[in-house]
Target: Putative oxidoreductase
Amino acid sequence: MSLPFQSDSLGKLTLRLSVGVLMLFHGVNKILNPASLDFISKQLTGMNLPQALAYGVYLGEVIAPLMIILGIYSRLGGLLVFGNMIFAIVLVHRSHLFTLTDHGGYGLELQAFFLLTGLAVFFLGSGRMAVKPD
Model:
């Protein structure tokens, strides 16, 4: 049954704006506080990975969200957010994989949100309401 207000394109736009805008806040914070890259660099070093990978956070938290928001290569943007969150979980949050918060929520709720919505954008694409529709 199709409802009169049902729209795949509007749903995709809502998804894109949700993940894109919320992730972009994290990226803007990294731009305004570049010292946060030191923490990421140390985590990478601890796993025998090159410190230069820390700059990938700008790709995953600034460029990718802008791609998603505007709908320009949004599938690639979604994949970049997904990859960014894999790195974040492995480098920083892996000890919380099987934890709950004091309120009963999943310990990695925010990370899971970004991981899965990035993946959803990858699978769904931008829809018609985009600068460059998929």
Remarks:
- The CA atoms of residues 41 and 52 lie 7 Å apart.
